[in-house]
Structures are given as structure tokens and as C-alpha cells.
Amino acid sequence: MPNLQKEWTVVVLSENQAQMRQFRVKRLWFYIAAGAGIAALSLLLVFSYMTWSLSSQVQDNTALQAKVKELESTNERIRDIAERLAELKQFEQQLRRGLQLPDGNLPSPDVLNPSRTEPISSDEMLPEDELVLGVYGERAAEISSESVLPADIPTHPPVRGYVTRTFEARRDLNDPGHYGLDVAAREGTTIQASANGLVLFAGWSYPYGNLIVIAHKSGYNTFYGHNQLLLVAPGDRVIQGQPIALLGNSGRSSAPHLHFEIWKDGVRVDPESVLAGSAG
Question: Does the residue 197 lie in any domain?
């Protein structure tokens, strides 16, 4: 075993060897310094590895969190689609009850088209059409006419109030859109028919709460949602400006307002493009 008390002499010469310095270092201190240096280097390497490892884990966790958020967003869209499908199914059933239609496929367009005047042959009828032709034909005849009067077009604002949301077409899968006009007013304010027509549906429908659907000779249908009280019933004939409901907050609604939609030949259109004056 080496004698740790012995000393080493370290000689330092200047560049021109004009000066010389000597240092005496005990072996013990040399070994201690060398060991400390090796330990420090080892700790530095361990720290560097741990830092790299933690950085990799943080990146992995960030990617995982992003994936989880993406899956949650996808699940939310799936739940929203399922909810909307359930709402449409429920609404279809309620319309069937209001129109007294049997279960099954809806009638063919020719049977339900009130503007068609020529008789429908037996070859053109579907089996379901034969069942509903008598029921729906009587109602369709009530709103059929050779000419359309100005009052048959939904140009009358159903309520006076403050427009809180306008018609917004759907832009992508994440955007549900808003296919109507929301008009806020005092709860209990009278809702008026936007045009002459026949009440097809008057009852509860989620998410629109107390809902009224009116068919008009002009090929338009108008929807009035979130009402507090309904003043008409399915089968009633109404005239433009007639009170049909009281404004409310029923259904999926956060404040008293009217949700007003206009459909033309089965397609939702911007109500403000049809109304003669602004509802606000």
C-alpha cells in the first residue's frame, strides 16, 4: 500500500524557463481531489441523463394529453350527434301524432305536395301513401289554392324584441350552426303567426319546448319554439298576425326568447331574408 503521507513535487517552468516554481502536494490530497473530480463528473452525467429522461417523459405526456383531448372532443361530437338523432326521432314522432300519420316511411313527395292538382294514380302510390292520403289530403286541401296571397308568405315578424342570434349556416363538423332567428322579449309577450296557414303541430318537443309548426300556401313552413303557452292546436287555421302563443323559456333555453325558423320546400332559410321588417 503506498505511503499517503509522502509528497509529490510539482515543478512549473515559465515559457522561457527563466522562472521556476515548485509545489509540494501530498498524495492523500491528490487522491482526494481526483476522487472528488470523478464523483462530480459522475453526478453531472447522472443529472444530465435524468434531465434528458424527464424531458422525454414530458414530451410523451404532452403528446398523450393532446391525444386524450382529441379523443374527448371526438366523443363529445359523437354524443352530440347521438343526441341530435334522438331529438329528430322524437320530433318526427310528435309530428306524426300531430298530423295523424301512421308509423313507417313518410309519404312520397307527390302525395304531400299541396300544389299538385292532378289526381295520383294507384301506380304512383306507395303502400304507406294509401293509408295517409285520406287524412293528409283533407288537411293539404285546406291550404291549397290556385293563387298565393301576400298574407300567405311569412313576412310578418312574429314578435317585437331584441335579436340575440341570427341565422348561421353550419361551417364544419364542429360547428352545429344556428338555423333560425332568436328574439328576446319579456316572458308572456304575444307571439303572432307570420302568415296565413294551417297548424300542423302544437305541443312539446325537445329541445324547442312548446313548439308550433305552421304550413303556408306559399310552400313555406314556420317554426315557433320555447313558448310559455300555446294558444292554437293542430288543425287550426290561422291568419297573419293572429296570436298563437306566449313567449317563454321552455325546452333547452337559457332565457325567455322565441326561436323562429322558416323552411321553404323542406330547406331551412334565413328568416331575415323573408321577413318584411326586422324583428328587432
Answer: yes
**Residue 237 contacts residue 223 (beta carbons within 8 Å):** no
Residue ranges making up the domain that contains 125: 100-142
218 within 8 A of 114, measured Cβ to Cβ: no
One domain, residues 164 and 214? yes
In a domain, residue 229? The reply is yes
Both 239 and 263 in a single domain? yes
The total number of structural domains that make up the chain: 3
CB 31 within 8 A of CB 4: yes
| CA distance linking residue 134 with residue 62, whole number of Å | 64
Instruction: Pull the grid cell for residue 64.
Output: 398523450
Identify whether residues 157 and 265 lie together within a single domain.
yes
Q: Do 233 and 168 share a structural domain?
A: yes
Summarised one tens digit per residue, pLDDT across range 102-157 is: 555 444 433 333 333 344 344 444 343 343 334 344 454 455 544 788 899 999 99
Distance of CA 154 to the CA centre of its chain: 27
Task: Please state, in angstroms and rounded to a whole number, the distance separating the CA atoms of residues 118 and 123.
Answer: 14
Say how far apart CA 131 and CA 127 lie, in whole Å: 7
Cell numbers for 142: 285546406
Q: Which residues contact 124 (CB under 8 A, 6 or more apart)?
A: 108, 110
- pTM exceeds 0.70: no
β-strand partners of 198? 215, 237
